[in-house]
Design a protein that fits this description.
By secondary structure, the chain is α+β, with helices and mostly antiparallel strands. Helix content is 50%, strand content 14%. The longest helix is centred in the last third of the chain and has 30 residues. The radius of gyration is 20 Å and the shape is globular. It holds the Pfam family DUF4872.
Length: 329
């Protein structure tokens, strides 16, 4: 059995920030999960409903691996990313750094991992790998998935080779922290304003505050849109609250990041943004509960109420991001 020594295998609330925390702590840089999420400008919104989809999907963050790229850029980290179509080369790209004493991040489809009891294809899942033997790989995943876990090498190979939405070509990556280690304080404002600018000026109506407004109109139709409302609506609510979002569709994580920022930066704009995201986080949880109730009861009034809250959320988050976008003034 080959394992990296000194790995802190804490599972977090979200997969990508969990993996980033494992890699960076091993490099001597210990940042909270909300700080990793915020410095990676991770917050976003997407209403996604394609012709091939069984049901709409609400995304509350930037696309997979963009957070990692953003964080590396913000902190001046060396990010070494490898992708390949070859399963043999893909394994070499993982085994070599582990043999050299460094944990590795992997992007894969969680459907094929042995420890996942909920079998749903998601090609944007990210884990940290810190060891292997002839039968299994040793990974760190979110707290709800067990933290330090293992999966068979055959399943891992299938997970890494999977093709489809949000998948990558056997993507693996390592992070190196420069000397001296960067302080997050000077990186907080640029990360916030970059996130705010993208949220306030989305290129299409499905993104950012415009996407939340659109969701508020379309959620009212979800009982008719669903093939099986009793299954599809509670599942959508579960994804918003518990499926690695940190709760409230990532708004809890961003609220907590802004709170940490307030301890380092004295700004009325930051305080305003934090107060508004605290309100937004509560309303997102309320929205998820209404969507779940609508599916269980077939009561369309719950979706009308959810739509009204989403309209308020579009305004609240727009006002929050407008305040945060003024941090550099």
């Amino acid at each position: 059995m080959t394992t990296v020594e000194g790995v802190d295998a804490r599972g977090g609330r979200h997969c990508e920030t969990t993996a980033l925390g494992v890699l960076l702590r091993h490099e001597g840089l210990d940042l909270s999960e909300p700080m990793l999420f915020g410095l990676g400008s991770g917050l976003s919104f997407l209403y996604w409903d394609g012709k091939s989809m069984d049901f709409p999907f609400l995304a509350g963050r930037v696309k997979p691996f963009e957070l990692t790229r953003n964080l590396a850029s913000a902190l001046g980290l060396e990010l070494l990313t490898r992708e390949t179509a070859s399963p043999r080369r893909a394994w070499e790209n993982v085994a070599a750094p582990i043999d050299a004493g460094h944990p590795v991040g992997l992007q894969l489809d969680s459907y094929h991992l042995d420890y996942f009891t909920s079998k749903v294809n998601f090609g944007g899942h990210i884990v940290a790998m810190y060891g292997y033997d002839e039968h299994a790989a040793y990974l760190v995943d979110t707290e709800q998935q067990g933290g330090a876990v293992s999966t068979g090498l055959t399943g891992l190979a299938r997970a890494r080779a999977a093709r489809g939405p949000m998948t990558a070509r056997h993507r693996s990556f390592t992070l190196t922290v420069p000397e001296p280690a960067p302080s997050p304080r000077t990186r907080i404002v640029p990360a916030i304003t970059a996130c705010a600018a993208a949220f306030l000026h989305p290129p299409i109506a499905n993104l950012g505050h415009r996407g939340i407004e659109k969701a508020g109109k379309l959620v009212r139709t979800w009982l008719q849109r669903a093939d099986d409302p009793q299954r599809d609506l509670p599942q959508a609510a579960l994804l918003m609250e518990q499926a690695g979002t940190g709760g409230a569709l990532f708004r809890n994580l961003y609220r907590d990041f802004l709170a940490e920022g307030m301890e380092l930066i004295d700004s009325d704009h930051l305080r305003t943004g934090h107060a508004l995201y605290a309100e937004a986080a509560h309303l997102w949880t309320e929205t998820a509960a209404l969507i779940k109730k609508a599916g269980e009861s077939a009561d369309a009034r719950c979706l009308v109420q959810a739509g009204a809250i989403l309209a308020d959320l579009s305004r609240i988050e727009r006002e929050a991001m407008q305040a945060l976008n003024r941090l550099e003034e």
